[in-house]
Amino acid sequence: MIRSLLKITITAILCSSCGVAFGQARPAFCEQIPNALLEGVQAPYAQQTSPDGKPYCEGLLVNPIALLPPSVVSLKQSQVSLPTFTSGAVASLNWCDDPRLPVHIRLRSTKIPFFGLDALQQGSFKWRTDTIATWQPNWDNLAALGTREVTISGDKQTVVVPLRVGGGYSSVYSFMVHSQTAISLSEALIQPIQPPGEPKLIDVSLMDGPSKNTWLVSVSFAARKAGIYRVTFEEAADDAGLTTTPIYLLHKTCVSHE
Amino acid sequence: MSSSESAGSTSRNARTALKKLSERKVQRLATIAAELEKGEQPLSDDVDELDRLGQLEAIYKSLNAKLRRQLELGALGLVLLALIALCLIRLRSTSVDVELHATGVRFSLDKGTTTTLIPGETGQILTLNRTTVSGIETISPHGSANGGRLQLRAATGPDKNANTKAIRNYDPSVRLFAIVLPSDSTFTVHASVAYSGNSRGLDLRTEGTMPVNASFGEVISVPSTTEGVQSAAPAINHITVEGKDMQFALYPADQLRELAVFRDVHVSSISFSEAGHSTVLNGTAYIRGRGSRGVTLRPSDLLVLSSEHPILLRELTLTKGELKVLATVPKATTILLGEDSPRDLRPTLFQWILYRWPNQLYATLSALIAIWLALRRWWESAE
Q1: What is the pTM for the complete model shown?
Q2: What ipTM is given for this predicted complex?
């Protein structure tokens, strides 16, 4: 009896240490980076609890080394210059979607230190700003993505919901494109998926982003119907024809959350 | 007592006897000389003894010469055996550089920490006349594939006679942005030449435990609004496919341009055969320890390589309808060439010594011959 109890205890200790070592103690929506990789980081990415008692992950990550194709790494609602995050406050992120459906929020710093935050929330997300104010207080330096799954024609598809800090709503969306190779994107192909419609090609102009290898582009969806759009930024077909990996954008029209 | 000890003892006895005979001969000659000085005739006993001593000396000398010949033969035999061993025993492993043209190559990609990209040049976009992908499990946008199969063709180019203000000049080719083999997984890749009518392309088959992702760009015509004017404009429709066992047939738009399929990837095995037959067209294998010229590979030469350490596939390119392979095998344990009775191309110990220390080898051989000749002369003079 004592021997079996001892076995169970040892197994439990070993399993918990394995989980911690491989970052499996964090919720599934968080980055599953092994803790060993975060050794030496001042405020390692770890599980936290939001003011409403729900778990989320926040802290510093290590620089990703993968060579990724050109892709949209952030989708925000356009906002005029925002004040920086300050310690001791509670900030909120909002989006225009059915408040009953959970959205995976992913914030990543585009500059050193590599701050990261992941949360799974419905309606809006409120959190204490102590960590973000210390490590990345500027919203413009953050790549923000809100994603959730939808079913289109029987297939599951991840859609991106534009995020904003604080209340209000804007149908002008700011996309941040990341590419490790030089690109000159000049067009956006917008294909209505749900409801289906005719694709449109619009001219866009890129601005330098907050860090090297990032660019910003704004597209207004004010005149478009609510629905799901496949958005691809591309070089003109008379150039090389390089494109970003398409994203499925969920566009809805909302009034202010305030 | 062993034969060598017996031979040694005989040699010593012979030498002692010869020495004593020589002393006796000298004494007897001195006696005869003294008698001659006195003006007397030498005694017949003295002359007879001198004669007997001469005969005995001749017998002992012939005995000694026979022994020397036996020793010489024994030493030569040993040298011959050592040479045969050096010429027959092969190195366990050596490094090989292979540069060849083939119609097909199959290899297993090692688990790595980084993803492997096709085309092998970072950022290279391959323009294609047409492509076929089969074995698709997921595709975006949905509904582009027909039963797990996707076929893309270059769009119709801009009509130069039409109103050029409405339609810009553009490249109607299908774009291959990348085929991505994820890290932390092993893959078997089979690359061969694809044929379709007069055009030649690349046939690529991937098999692995994790899905391979490929992105294409297809030129489509969409309504565009430029400066308030409605027109049709070419756009790139990005298509992404995923699957564990996929087959790609890629026909480049420019067949004369070299396509780098892979560059600097580590593979655990590499094979140049299909259904047991060689796919090699021509090439050279540079084997360390077999001289700098290299071994010429001819069509139908079945080349078999295996290595203890990962093989570095420096380059796999499609050039003018042929696959060109540059690979380095750092520790090849098997290097076989030929179909029915393959030749082992690993260098022998003699070739290796000749390759590594040629001057030292010649110096040592010269020194050994000089020592041998000196020993012979010394032996003969001792007799």
Answers
A1: 0.73
A2: 0.76
